[in-house]
Amino acid sequence: MPSLFHSFIVLIVLSSPVLADYIVDSSFKLDVHSHVVPTIYSNALIAAGYPVVNNTIYTDGFPVPSWTLEGHIAAMNTNGINYSTISVSAPGVSFLASDCCAAASLARELNLAMYNYTQQYPTRLGAMCLLPLPDVESSLLELEYCLDELEFDGVGLYTNANGTYLGDAALNPIFEALNNRSATVFVHPAEPSCQSVTLGHPGPMIEYPFESVRAMENMLLTGQRANYSSVNIIFPHGGGAMPYLATRIAGMASLSFLGSLNVATTLAQFKNYIFDTASSTTAVQLLAMKEFFGGTDKIVTGTDFPYVPQTQASAGLAAIQANGAFTDDEMAQINNQNALSIFPGVAAKLGFALG
Predict the structure, then answer these.
(1) CA 130 to CA 314: how far, in whole Å?
(2) CA-to-CA distance for 234 and 63, rounded, in angstroms?
């Protein structure tokens, strides 16, 4: 059993941030959480049988908003967002899991579409690679293509892909490839396969926050996160319910039948994730994140555009500093410094020098 001193050292190493300090205006906002809905994706969802009500597609019980590239840039301008990393929201292409070739083909089409968007607005947009999981072999090829050839900012994952959760050993090759690159990953919740838990209500309403917890808990208990700790991982929506459940999970994981995991080490692992502010801009949510992390160095800006209505996104962004009682220096961290630390390629592309 490790000594208390050893546990304390592990806690310090795992939870102490190593932040870069870039020379950039504190008001510069980098949004790590925004989505695209290309026509090819909408058509694929309809072809797969997702319900359409009054010309609106529904996934996970939630309406898929209409989207255009021009509208995306206009919303960024309205919200004071200077740079956005774009990704495809749930379910990704996992609905094609029974046809791995079709899934890989659609993922490639969507990645090329995102690449084209970033080329049209290279100083405003970056992309997070969409993988055709749960097919690991095809996903490894797509990961390499996106990061090494297209030079995407990072990779988008989901809490589960057709029931295969982060933490599953089948995904170890993916995490090994990410770990070798010290890549940054954005994890979006996806509705669990046992849809009865939603009680017929939209999955994003309460299941998405708990999906983030399921993924973090599973990566803890399987050892996947500990084994691939060089991957920077962002969870949205203020980390879901994790700020409120972390000590409960850590306490139970310390019991012998769950592996007698060290409480301090478990909490340090959870605190080494990054949480965004999408749909998490109330005083309760922001202060919970700050208390959980012991500061603001793991909080990044997220809007969840276009799934969060523009009126809500604008109001939320405007309220962050007051609701969180954040100083100007803390807002600089949340607006850009924390994100630039895990997206050094973005800093280089935009010409931000280290201070």
Answers:
(1) 27
(2) 24
* Amino acid present at 183: A
Question: Which long-range contacts (C-beta less than 8 Å, at least 24 apart) are formed by 239-242?
Answer: 239/212, 239/273, 239/275, 239/289, 239/292, 240/189, 240/208, 240/209, 240/210, 240/211, 240/212, 240/213, 241/209, 241/210, 241/212, 241/213, 242/212, 242/213, 242/216, 242/270, 242/273, 242/275, 242/292
First-to-last alpha carbon distance for the chain, in angstroms, is 42
Residue 168 has pLDDT above 60, yes or no: yes
Cα dist from 224 to 175, 176, 231, whole Å: 8, 10, 11
CA nearest to 103, candidates 56, 63, 127, 136: 136
Say if residues 326 and 333 touch (Cβ distance below 8 Å): no
pTM, rounded to two decimals: 0.93
pLDDT in tens, 184-207: 999 999 999 887 888 888 888 889
What is the per-residue pLDDT for 241?
97
